[in-house]
Write the structure tokens for this entry.
Amino acid sequence: MASPRSQPIPGTTLFDGKQAQKGYALNKMCFSFNEARNRAEFQADEAAYMRKYGLNEQQTQAIRQRDVLGLLAAGGNVYYLAKFAGILGLDVQDLGAAQTGMSKEAFKARLVAQNNQPDRLA
């Protein structure tokens, strides 16, 4: 019997070692957005900035299309992608909503509902 960790979760991309290797350049680029000058450089010439970090075609297309789910499939880590999303005026809740196919409002309501669950350990 497979462990729960090895079973796929429908609609999600498991970020494991293989995905980490696949997304190294993308995640490195997104990490660079911690610095304002790098965000400005990206915004001035996205194509040149992506070439600078060696993004592959899948990653480049997902960046151009602002396709968060495509970026996850291309090896993106949600914590690094949040740096890219910030350039677009998005936050982590926007990313969560995109991952689940929900509106941001529905996603936020789901989070609140889960937080209001009775304590199971009591």
Notes: The longest helix spans residues 104-115. The CA atoms of residues 3 and 113 lie 28 Å apart. The chain has two domains: 15-89, 91-122.
